[in-house]
Amino acid sequence: MHGHEAANAVIFGIDPLWMSTAILVLAYVILLSEKVHRTVIALFGAGVAIVTGVLNQTQAIAGIDFNTIALLTGMMIIVGITKTTGVFEFVAIWSAKKVKASPIGILIALSIVTAVFSAFLDNLTTVLLVVPVALLLADKLKLSPYPFLVSQILASNVGGTATLIGDPPNILIGSATGLTFMQFLTTLGPVAAFIMVLMAISFYFIWGKSLVAAPELRERIMHFHEADSISDRPLMIRCLVVLVLVILGFVIGEHYHIRPGSTAMTGAALLLLVVTFGMKESEAGQKVHLAFVEVEWPALFFFIGLFVIVTGVEHAGLLTILGKELMILTDNDPAATTFVTLWLAAVVSAAIDNIPFVATMIPLVETMEAGLGGNGSLIGAAANVMVAGLGERAGYPISFAKYIAYGLPFMLASMVIAHGYMYLRFFL
After folding, report:
1. Mean pLDDT over the full length of the chain
2. CA distances from 118 to 30, 79, 155, 158, 191 (A)
3. Burial of residue 223 (number of CB atoms within 10 Å: 0-12, 13-18, 19+)
């Protein structure tokens, strides 16, 4: 390390290890208190890390995982444009009619739709698309929306676990470990599918008896015309073609060392090109502007701030110390280390938002199962918070305790399955 590359001496001669750890711990405490918006805290923490000399700006920028940022941004633009065509509502209404508008059938069908969408779009986006339709159907059938909201949260997290692009923690893990799209899918896809099947069966036993709708109300849903929800057929076809190309790009690109972030951004640019081609400049400008409005900028800047805070801790050596402690604890046994980490990750992910947790842990242990742990409580994952928000807006707030009653048992059961699967797959 030459002088100009090394972090400056931290102000007041405080040890960088203490300073960076204090920033990380304080950021977590404030995140948990929910008193300040999480994006503000992450960016402020990042700023403090640089100003106090834990990192210099060059190191801070090097610590930001731009593959993750690009992947999320690209997918948000593609989904934002696709959403306007009504294709997602089409799928939800179509699946409700396929199960003859039976309440538990709708609940399970929408859960499966959400799990599948969550595997290929980011699960935050999926719940934004499917939950309003679930609430509408529950309303039309005069049913309690709570089972629908809870099952959507559970399904989005399990589906999101299956692929590299399903959930921000997966993107972070894939980016840090260089796992390819196919490696991720073949490792986690089967276990996610298995958990989803078990979940659908348990939904049936938990809610099957209590969800009853009058025949005439079910009849009304059968008269919905799903084709009416498609507002722009030509645009829908273009969007779906680009989406398929992007997913193919994820699979093929890895053989040519093209990272998923580049694929997603190129796909987003291609879709914008197709949408605005031949338009007047002012009209095209408006279209582009609307596409960028769909991007969740606060979420992206939350990641950017977080990456910098975590880089500070990494540079100062905290994660190396923790890693050594973990190895001593598990006596250097890879299986023991994996399972301790697996359960630690799940329990901690239930207590705090799994994104900052995974971002902190990645440099420490390279395999993480935080996606499933996210089901354990209402703040376990960003999608959970989103569903709770949508429920609240519709007049059905989900309380923390009410959610845990369902979410925690599901999380523990899925973790037991994941534990068994990891053991059979990697350690037998």
Report:
1. 80
2. 29, 12, 8, 8, 15
3. exposed
